[in-house]
Amino acid sequence: MKLTEVITVVLISVVAVVVNGSDEFDFFYLVQQWPGSYCDSKQSCCYPTTGKPQPDFGIHGLWPNYKDGSYPSNCDATNPFDLNQVKDLMSSMRTNWATLACPSADGVSFWTHEWDKHGTCSESVLNQHAYFQSALQLKNQSNLLQLLKSAGIEPNDDKYSLSSIKSAIQQGLGFNPWIECNTDDSGNSQLYQVYLCVDTSGSNLIECPVNPSGKRCGSQIQFPTF
């Protein structure tokens, strides 16, 4: 085989690996956010144009990840977010996946970002509709607020031990969560985001292969009202 032919074969193989491997991943992070902590910070928040969300954890995203802690992103620019594909999910998305960013918006930019950056990297197993539907189903399945309330942990501005929060979720779901905190204007550590891990089908919770990066919590954290 001539050198030029060898080079061509190698280049084709490399391209094939890049294209076919662009949406391969090991698991998802399902990330849910407490709106009271998002709003009770220096950056503040803006309620969506549909009104103030209910006082419940909201979906931040369903993020494909690798076991080494890295993650794929923006895997397919040819498949942009299409609102028509999720029309039947819109009511649930407005309730459970609301935007709190300023200025006030209807959520479309938020969902577009999540699909373009993260969803396109899972499209070999989840098309656009299935991606958003899976996240909504997993959020309802986990029911974080009810698990915490059942353990006496209420969003009432009180402080709770990090271990008690983790324990309540672990006992309720059977899997360990990873908790991310932020700080309010007074410097209090707040319960901000809860990470749960999901298998590559987007259907089942699993034990996390690796913990995410993010702001860690102190031993006592506040659960602010919303």
In words, what does this structure look like?
The chain is an alpha+beta fold and 226 residues long. It is 33% helix and 17% strand. It has helices at 3-21, 35-39, 90-96, 108-117, 128-142, 144-150, 162-173, and strands at 27-33, 58-65, 159-161, 178-183, 189-198, 205-206, 220-222. The strands form 2 sheets. Strands 1, 2, 4, 5 and 6 form a 5-stranded antiparallel sheet that branches. Strands 3-7 form a two-stranded antiparallel ribbon. A hairpin with a 5-residue loop joins strand 4 (178-183) and strand 5. Helix 6 (144-150) crosses helix 7. The longest helix is centred in the N-terminal third of the chain and has 19 residues, at 3-21. It is globular. The relative contact order is 0.19. Mean pLDDT is 91; it is low at 6-22.
- By DSSP (H or I, 4+ residues per run), the number of helices equals 7
What's the alpha carbon Rg, rounded to whole Å?
Answer: 20 Å
The parts where pLDDT drops under 50 for at least 5 residues are 6-22
Strand count: 7
Biggest beta-sheet profile = 5 strands, antiparallel
Outline the fold blueprint:
Elements (H helix, E strand, L loop, with lengths): L2 H19 L5 E7 L1 H5 L18 E8 L24 H7 L11 H10 L10 H15 L1 H7 L8 E3 H12 L4 E6 L5 E10 L6 E2 L13 E3 L4
Antiparallel strand pairs: 1-2, 1-5, 3-7, 4-5, 5-6
